[in-house]
Design brief:
heterodimer; A: 178 residues; mainly alpha; Four Helix Bundle (Hemerythrin (Met), subunit A); 0% strand; globular; B: 384 residues; two-stranded antiparallel sheet; two-stranded antiparallel ribbon; 7% strand
Chain lengths: 178, 384
């Protein structure tokens, strides 16, 4: 007997899969980017159906809201015909495509294989307060995983400084005048 | 959803009512905007159709409905038609998750020969525990409607407007989110009801572990986080694309920006989206910094006791309490909406580089400093 939650899951899973396939089959890069945004919104919906409200919100804010808007903006701003041509021809790019597809396939198979026991295990104890989940998440993040958290922060700082440096040495609007 | 058909019906009806509230507020706001601008600029404004020009809205609505359908020749039809609808979504979703009053308790009653159990109806579309995160997530999707309009209508003005809009929204979202961190630190919750409940009564704060009470000030967030309030208000102006941040439409440079190619009802939907953003922004300002639906010095429990004393039953007293509190929220929202209009007709538009400098080099550092200062202040306040 299917319940409402099952229908929600199947609807969201279908949405994510269809829009995910549409991302790579769409001819116009704008449509690819918009489909990708829809994929991310679908993933946020799946997080909601798993009661991970905070993760769903962050997924919307960071990926669907900021990262994808930047993608769409860049695609609109530049004529990408040359890049599309460069990425659809040549042995090296074909090899890279095969390699990345293999890595993704390996990840999926590995996850399914390793999580087989977890999926069929009885569901954990119900947690009803959403805010408490957020507090638990914050507690884990800032006590147990504080080192990884700080390291990722430093990594992002390095990336930001690198991006600023690159934009200043190659000329253009923000080039340094010394 | 609800335990039985009655509760489900009410809950679904609430969503429609709140959406219609947003749509219905728009003509009033347009009238206020035109009469208000005329007042500020020493003109008359629309005053011919009906009393005070109020019927002008009706005439405008008819005009919008009967305008000729138009699709630019090189436009991407799907994006062109979808964009106005998508522009409506973030405002409507965000408004539905803001509490508009205290919950209404309905005592058990009999209907059609069946015993209907006691209900509690929340005066909001849906209660989401992590209200603040949800609002930020939904409003960050606002850029898509503009981007789709700009790209879909195949016009250089539209595209430039859309690019400006997305860059502006991403930049000011940072300041917006960071300014809310101060409120999160002070109140320690994402939930709107808990934030509002903590703002009731006279101003009370801790200092070196001792409680101080200032009896002539309400316990509002603005006294705990004034810098955060200013930053939040300024970045909501940018998020709603209102002057002085209306670079995406900039009539002087871009004709009408991202909606250059739109007319008639589609244009009106962008309008509703923009005014919806303003309403959400005003309601959020009231909720975070000015006590939400609370009336200063009077808690909803006080009002309910008062109505009980007047001889009303449980349901009636609860509904009247919700009504009075809702009116208090409406007064605050109307005040902030007037500030939106007032600022529009007072300040000139920024230049684009000034806009980016303000967002990244002034507001972001101030918001970060606000977080640090609030955290240190909380530590000092609660240390014995």
């Amino acid at each position: 007997m299917l319940e409402l939650a099952d229908y929600t899951f199947y609807f969201l899973a279908a949405l994510v899969l269809i829009s995910g396939i549409a991302v790579i089959t769409a001819q116009n890069p704008i449509f690819s980017a918009l489909w990708l945004a829809l994929t991310m919104i679908g993933v946020a919906g799946i997080f909601v159906s798993l009661d991970a409200w905070f993760v769903a919100g962050v997924q919307l804010i960071v990926y669907a809201g900021a990262v994808m808007v930047l993608f769409v903006m860049v695609i609109m701003l530049f004529d990408l015909r040359h890049e599309i041509h460069a990425f659809s021809r040549g042995i090296l790019s074909g090899f890279l495509k095969l390699a990345s597809a293999g890595i993704v396939l390996g990840l999926i198979v590995g996850t399914v294989y390793r999580s087989a026991e977890t999926v069929f295990a009885p569901p954990p104890v119900e947690t009803d307060k959403m805010a408490d989940v957020t507090k638990a998440l914050a507690n884990t993040l800032f006590t147990k995983y504080i080192f990884s958290f700080e390291v990722i922060g430093v990594l992002l700082l390095v990336i930001a400084i690198g991006a600023v440096t690159l934009s200043r040495i190659r000329g253009g609007t923000h080039a340094s005048h010394d | 959803m609800g335990v039985d058909a009655f509760e489900t019906t009410i809950n679904v009806a609430k969503m429609f009512v709140i959406f219609l509230m947003m749509v219905q507020a728009v003509p009033v706001l347009v009238w206020l905007e035109r009469r208000g601008s005329a007042f500020i600029q020493n003109r008359f404004g629309p005053n011919r159709v009906g009393p005070l020009g109020l019927m002008q809205l009706l005439a405008d609505a008819v005009k919008f409905l009967f305008k000729e359908e138009f699709l630019p020749k090189k436009a991407v039809a799907f994006l062109y038609y979808a964009a106005p609808v998508i522009a409506l979504v973030p405002g409507a979703l965000a408004l539905a998750s803001i509490p508009l009053g205290p919950p209404i308790e309905v005592a058990a009653f009999e209907m059609l020969g069946r015993q209907m159990g006691p209900y509690v109806f929340k005066l909001q579309g849906y209660d989401i525990g992590i209200g603040i995160v949800f609002i930020l997530g939904v409003s960050s999707l606002g850029a898509y409607g503009l981007l789709m309009a700009g790209w879909g209508s195949a016009s250089k003005y539209s595209l430039l407007g859309a690019l400006r809009a997305s860059a502006q929204m991403i930049s000011y979202e940072l300041a917006l989110s960071l300014s809310l961190v101060g409120i999160l630190l002070v109140y320690g919750t994402f939930n709107f009801y808990e934030i509002i409940a903590q703002q009731q009564g006279p101003l009370r704060f801790m200092f070196w572990g001792k409680e101080n009470v200032i009896s002539w000030l309400p316990n509002w967030g603005v006294f705990f986080n004034p810098v955060g309030m200013i930053l939040f208000a300024a970045s909501t102006f940018a998020e709603a694309n209102r002057l002085p941040f209306d670079l995406p439409e900039a009539e002087g440079e871009l004709v009408a920006g991202f909606h250059t190619e739109y007319g008639g009802f589609k244009m009106l939907m962008f309008f509703i989206g923009e005014y919806g953003h303003m309403i959400v922004a005003s309601a959020l300002l009231a909720t975070f910094y000015f006590g939400g639906y609370g009336i200063p010095f009077v808690s909803p429990a006080n009002i309910e006791t008062f109505f009980h004393a007047q001889g009303f039953g449980l349901t009636a007293a609860s509904a009247l309490t919700a009504l009075v509190s809702h009116l208090a929220l409406l007064v605050k929202v109307a005040l902030f909406l007037w500030v939106f209009i007032w600022v529009r007709w007072t300040l000139p538009r920024f230049r684009y580089d000034q806009l980016m400098d303000l967002g990244w080099k002034s507001m972001l550092p101030w918001a970060l400093a606000n977080v640090v200062v609030t955290a240190v202040w909380l530590l000092v306040a609660n240390t014995k």
